[in-house]
Amino acid sequence: MNTVHIIDCHNANDYFADRQEGPIVQHLLKAVNIRAELHMALNRTKFGEAVVRAMEAECDVLHIAGHGNGDGIGFVQWAKWPSLG
């Protein structure tokens, strides 16, 4: 495995309560010699940019860290998400 891209998407409450899993995942992967790139996505635009960066880098794994519900990940609602392809 060459690279894992982590997109940490959380809302402000999680951010200020220090409930982010992305940095933890990144450090665990690095501890076992797996390259891990962390991207913080605080809104839908930054999430899209992080997905594009991961696709351009041809990462082996894309890990999305965040809290979701039936509509998507916090600020991202899948039904309204435009096609990335």
Give the DSSP E fraction (strand runs of 2 or more residues). Answer: 25-35%
Radius of gyration: 13 Å
Let me know the largest β-sheet.
3 strands, parallel
The residue fraction in helices comes out at: 25-40%
**Roughly how many Å apart are the termini?**
24 Å
Oligomer: single chain
Order of helices and strands: EHHEHEEEE
Mean of the pLDDT scores? 78
Compute the number of strand runs. 6
Class per helix and strand makeup: alpha/beta
Q: What count of helical segments does DSSP give?
A: 3
Q: Low-confidence stretches at least 5 residues in length (pLDDT < 50)?
A: 77-81
The largest beta-sheet arranges its strands as: 2-1-3
Morphology:
globular
How would you portray this structure in words?
By secondary structure, the protein is α/β, with parallel strands linked by helices. 33% of the residues lie in helices and 31% in strands. The chain is built from three helices and six strands, in the order E-H-H-E-H-E-E-E-E. The strands form two sheets. It has a three-stranded parallel β-sheet, sandwiched between helices. A three-stranded antiparallel β-sheet has the order 4-5-6, with no helix packed on it. Strand 4 (68-69) and strand 5 (72-73) form a beta hairpin.
List the helices and strands and how they pair.
Elements: E1 3-9, H1 12-16, H2 22-31, E2 35-41, H3 44-56, E3 61-66, E4 68-69, E5 72-73, E6 76-77
Parallel strand pairs: 1-2, 1-3
Antiparallel strand pairs: 4-5, 5-6
